[in-house]
């Protein structure tokens, strides 16, 4: 009995050594994954570009306004609040939502997401004006998308028209290219004129350099938004990684060096130096170092008080906001 327990403990330690820390399991990534899933589908069906995890300065409060998604096309910019709720959801008279979880069998109360998205529009519009972008009237709008397949609307007609319920979300398809709208009728605006190319590019430039949450992509296409803190590990590895700071680097890619599926002991880390003159980094701007796979990435997830520690072997990429 004791020998079996000792063997199981040793096996557990070996698996953690080669396949990463348990923090990847402790972090609730589903809400973050929902953002990127909605973002990918918006770009596929609607076109344009979606910016994820914005942190826009708010003059009315000390902390920035967090915005889930901003969809940008020549015809409109849409602030999108994503609600990854699972359970029976109803709307209170004051606009707030109540979700009765099927699994936890308890009530969860959520502030009015439509009012939240409306506030985010005002903050974003003020920020764009401060950066020299004056938007045409009606160009900026807002929507709330319920992205979880386990979302169950109690009295669906009570939800405001700005809310795209899950049953509507999964049925959305692009219309004919001859039509003005890229979405099914009524989902998004359908009678807007395109902005000039110069203003459209200006909007992209402003949003691409706006404050955002850092993001770490984990194996299995799992995402976590938050703040990158530092690397932890052997001294020689940390020396090689010392230049990866948000003031210098915007993108980090981790590549495995093992063959035939064996767990790697060392990893190739590629990083690109930040260049505000261009949107992306050219091949010549990428630097490469090789470090131990046991090196840790310390990351503070958004809406969490816990600092998570991810083994570098579990990380696919790291994106740092300016």
Number of domains: 2
Helical/strand content category: alpha+beta
Stretches where pLDDT is under 50 for at least 5 consecutive residues are 4-22, 176-186, 279-283
Write down how many β-strands occur, each being a DSSP E stretch of 2 or more residues: 17
Number of helices: 7
pLDDT averaged over residues = 84
Strand order of the largest sheet: 14-13-12-17-10-11-15-16
Name the helix and strand elements from N-terminus to C-terminus, one letter apiece: HHHEEEEEEHEEEHHEEHEEEEEE
Write the layout of secondary structure elements.
Layout: H1 2-19, H2 23-26, H3 30-46, E1 49-56, E2 65-72, E3 77-83, E4 87-91, E5 97-100, E6 107-110, H4 113-130, E7 140-146, E8 151-153, E9 163-164, H5 166-171, H6 197-208, E10 214-218, E11 222-232, H7 235-240, E12 249-256, E13 266-273, E14 286-292, E15 296-301, E16 308-311, E17 315-319
Describe the structure.
Pfam families: NERD. It comes from Carnegiea gigantea. InterPro entries: NERD (IPR011528). This is NERD domain-containing protein. The strands form 3 sheets. The chain has an 8-stranded antiparallel beta sheet with strand order 14-13-12-17-10-11-15-16. It has 2 domains: 11-27 and 213-319, no CATH class; 47-208, no CATH class. With 322 residues, the protein is α+β, with helices and mostly antiparallel strands. A hairpin with an 8-residue loop joins strand 1 (49-56) and strand 2 (65-72). The chain has 7 helices and 17 strands. Residues 4-22, 176-186 and 279-283 have low confidence and may be disordered.
């Amino acid at each position: 009995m004791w020998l079996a327990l000792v063997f199981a403990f040793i096996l557990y330690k070996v698996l953690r050594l080669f396949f990463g820390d348990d923090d990847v399991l402790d972090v609730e990534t589903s809400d973050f994954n929902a953002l990127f899933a909605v973002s990918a589908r918006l770009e596929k069906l609607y076109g344009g570009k979606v910016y994820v995890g914005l942190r826009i300065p708010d003059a009315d409060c000390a902390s920035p306004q967090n915005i889930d998604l901003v969809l940008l096309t020549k015809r409109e910019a849409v602030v999108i609040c994503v609600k990854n709720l699972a359970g029976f959801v109803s709307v209170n008279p004051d606009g707030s939502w109540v979700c009765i979880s099927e699994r936890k069998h308890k009530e969860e109360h959520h502030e009015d997401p439509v009012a939240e998205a409306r506030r985010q529009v005002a903050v974003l519009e003020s920020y764009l004006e401060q950066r020299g972008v004056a938007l045409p009237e009606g160009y900026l709008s807002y929507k709330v998308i319920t992205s979880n397949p386990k979302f169950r609307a109690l009295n669906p007609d009570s939800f405001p028209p700005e809310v795209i319920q899950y049953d509507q979300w999964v049925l959305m398809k692009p219309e004919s290219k001859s039509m003005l709208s890229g979405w099914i009728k009524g989902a998004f605006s359908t009678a807007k004129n395109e902005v000039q190319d110069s203003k459209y590019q200006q909007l992209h430039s402003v949003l691409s350099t706006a404050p955002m949450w850092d993001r770490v992509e984990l194996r299995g296409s799992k995402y976590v938004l938050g703040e990158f803190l530092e690397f932890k590990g052997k001294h020689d590895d940390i020396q090689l990684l010392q230049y990866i700071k948000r003031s210098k680097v915007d993108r980090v890619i981790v590549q495995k060096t093992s063959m035939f599926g064996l767990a790697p002991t060392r990893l190739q880390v590629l990083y690109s130096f930040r260049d505000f003159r261009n949107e992306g980094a050219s091949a010549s701007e990428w630097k490469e170092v090789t470090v131990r796979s046991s090196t840790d990435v310390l990351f503070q997830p958004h809406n969490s008080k816990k600092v998570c520690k991810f083994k570098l072997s579990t990380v696919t990429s790291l994106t740092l906001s300016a």
